[in-house]
Amino acid sequence: MREGGQKLRRLGLAALFMLAASAAAAQTQQLAIGQRNLACGSPTSLNDGWPTATPESVSLDGSRLCGIAARLAATNANVHAVVIARHGRLVFEQYFSGHDEFWGMARGPHEFDVTTKHDMRSVSKSVTSLLVGIAIDRELIKTVDDPILKFFPDYSALKTPGWDNITLRHLLTMSSGMQWDQNRPWADPQNDERQLSIEADPFRYVLSKPIAAPPDSIWNYNSGGTDLLGNVIERVSGKSLEAFAREALFAPLGISDWEWMKYRNEHISSAAGLRLRPRDAAKIGQLVLNKGAWGGREIVSAKWIEQSVTPRFQAIGFFGGLFYYGQQWWMGRTLSGDKDVKWIAAQGLGGQRIFIIPELDLVMVTTSGLYGSPRQGNAALDILANFIIPCVRDNDTR
Questions:
Q1: Residues 6 or more apart from 246 whose CB is under 8 A from it?
Q2: What is the DSSP letter of 246?
Q3: Residue 171: φ, ψ to 5°
Q4: DSSP states of 281-349 as a string?
Q5: What distance, in Å, lies between the first and last C-alpha atoms of the chain?
Q6: pLDDT digit string, tens, across residues 308-336
Q7: pTM of the entire structure?
Q8: Cβ atoms of residues 199 and 189 within 8 Å
């Protein structure tokens, strides 16, 4: 019996060793899978309001998304982040190293990660539009058809012919007819956007510009109009733009780590100064996709979102003139195989993009450092056409 018991003990120990080895192998395999998922953009859970999930759980082909990094490297895209959300869940985020600027100042190569804020440049315009909508929802502003001079009585002496007819809506849609040129090189003293950064009173500078065409007749990209809108929000709310944005938009979205930069003259840049983490920029996109709601709470009215993303003008002179413009938001479409997909976007210099695709219930954000490059928007469109749309495995648009 003693010999039989020893045999049984030896068998038991062998079984334990086998189980331990099997468990170790399983753990190693699990770690390998986790590392592979991390390399392929597995999102990090930060308890910041974003539920996370796998691409497959929202009917996306994760293996196809894994090819994004190689494409970006092969095309020397200098993309710093790619973030994807579907059905209200964050399913992909990937960060890279690359050369960047800090609001116009070269910072050289930088390693980006989930905690890094990034210049969003003219994405700021779309956020300013949301803040105007919130001010209207709160009846701080009566209507977008209010004349702009109503909010600037202290500048009435500047009034020149045509300004009486300019409304908030004309500034939102960039159709005021104001004489404005920001397409020149930055160093050119006739670049009107540059002047905003150096004038002691940028609002006086904008309001003193002549009206060269009837409102609603010509679309002309204009950061000065957006800066006026930002100051209108300050005037009607009695708060700084940062304070109003924090209370009315960012806090409800759970966005706590952000900056809104000021010009050298200490005036906030409503048109271009916002810095956000990419996953927080994706919350802005999700808010628009949800028609103004986040977490079951209305932050801006669905009516305002609808007005903002309705095409108003052909954006002639920008992006080949193929896109449309609403109220500080862009509209366009992407052909991928046999799918012709419409999208809404916030777009900023250098490749900063928030794409909102209602029919796919999807949001994509990219940040990039190609400031001043004609290639700056190519990577985001490439990812959309050749990776994201083809990887959708259902027709669920929830």
A1: none
A2: I
A3: -70, -40
A4: HHHHHHHHHTTSEETTEESS-HHHHHHHTS--EE-TTSGGGT-EE-SS-EEEEEEETTEEEEEEEEEET
A5: 69
A6: 999 999 999 887 788 999 999 999 999 99
A7: 0.90
A8: no
